[in-house]
Amino acid sequence: MDNLNIMIVGVGGQGTLLASRILGNVALQSGYDVKVSEVHGMSQRGGSVVTYVKMGEKVYSPLIEKGEADIIMAFEKLEAFRWVEYLKAEGTMVVNDQEINPMPVIIGKAKYPENIFDTMRDSGIKLQTIDALSIARECGNIKAVNVALIGLMAKSTHIGREVWQQAMEEVIPKKLLEVNVKAFDAGNQR
What we know:
This protein is of the alpha/beta class.
């Protein structure tokens, strides 16, 4: 396998760091070298959180530069839009169809951008969207948004279902495993 560069972008509290741990575990179980870099930003105040996960035969740096991401997994629409320049021309954007107002919108200094998905599609971006919040709610825990999104993203890789299952078992607490596996499978079947 050539290197696979994945960016995980979202807002603090959405589970981006757990998602990066699952992806890192999947890479290790698949026998790949892996580097994970967590850039927290203003996560405790609802700000952007970015994590880089790079896997392959040999990975030298955990950072992903503009135009290098094979996959960007965005937990929120505006975050997808903010980080789109990091996506390769032939890359895939996997996005949760959720809007979380940033502080300028909350205080009335800005408006949430309209037609984000149309704008990205019009510029030729390969876009996969999912209502991960509804899936997580249906599965029994709204915090499973991250794993529902991973399920959708997993379709863009060649990594088998059993590897994802094992990674979830090793990273997710047992009491939350069942609901997260349901969310993964629901996202993967969309």
